[in-house]
Design a protein that fits this description.
Structural class: alpha/beta
Number of helices: 8
CATH architecture: 3-Layer(aba) Sandwich
Mean pLDDT: 93
Radius of gyration: 17 Å
Distance between the termini: 12 Å
Number of strands: 6
CATH topology: Uracil-DNA Glycosylase, subunit E
CATH superfamily: Uracil-DNA glycosylase-like domain
Shape: globular
Length: about 240
């Protein structure tokens, strides 16, 4: 089912190039504030994860390199991806996201707890606007700019992508800025973020409220609402 969303079968070198990029991402130390914070969180652990070894490094993208749908999040969670080393893995945001992807037939299982848990994605790839967990989950503009080349390169390697699902306004704007840097046509004025908002291009852009606990526990984003976004993404990806 998800395979039908792919534009074409990409050559194996795309996956190889992504692995090379991801190795480079995990070694990045460009932002002193983020390096200090991610490593402090990994060293001074919360009680429930005292016995675990934290990743404590930048987090690369994850998923199907031939995906038609790219989900773009904000940044690793301090005790989620910063602990496990995989985007949206090991926290409540990921619980919500991967359950939805599984319902949509895009994930092999509804849970994501570690890099070695056997989860695979089919037809979807997950990326981040910022690769390190920021204090207060609030990145500085300069940090987003320094991280942007990683996003540019990752999206360029996802040659089958037809739609970007931006989780929140920061991810939405990060993708629009990517288009500007790449010299791709971008509407003026820039399209405004909103849940279910679309901006057509190649790939198209689709907005969704972020899958954070702040949104899902308050009812700002429900499972039904996010299922509708994924259904819309599948339509745009055809």
């Amino acid at each position: 089912m998800a395979g039908a969303l792919r534009r074409r079968r990409g050559p194996p070198r795309e996956g190889v190039a992504l692995r090379v990029l991801h190795d480079e991402i995990t070694e990045c130390r460009r932002c002193p504030r983020l390096v200090a914070w991610r490593e402090r969180v990994a060293r001074v652990k919360v009680r429930r994860f005292l016995q675990e070894d934290y990743w404590g490094r930048p987090v690369p993208g994850f998923g199907d390199p031939r995906a038609a749908i790219v989900i773009l999040g904000l940044a690793p969670g301090a005790h989620g991806a910063n602990r496990t080393g995989r985007a949206f893995t090991g926290d409540r945001s990921g619980d919500f996201l991967f359950a939805a992807l599984h319902r949509a037939g895009l994930a092999s299982q509804p849970t994501s707890v570690s890099r070695g848990d056997g989860l695979t994605l089919d037809g979807v790839f997950i990326s981040l606007a910022l690769r390190c967990a920021p204090p207060g989950n609030a990145p500085l503009p300069g940090e987003l700019r320094r991280c942007a080349p990683f996003l540019d390169r990752e999206i360029d390697l996802l040659v089958s992508a037809k739609v970007i699902v931006a989780l929140g306004a920061i991810a939405w704007n990060a993708y629009l800025l990517h288009r500007v840097r790449q010299g791709k046509p971008t509407p003026r004025p820039a399209p405004k973020f909103g849940h279910g908002a679309t901006a057509f291009g190649d790939p198209a852009l689709l907005g969704s409220f972020h899958v954070s606990q702040q949104n899902t526990q308050t009812g700002k984003l429900t499972a039904e609402m996010f299922d509708q976004v994924l259904a819309q993404a599948r339509q745009l990806a055809r």
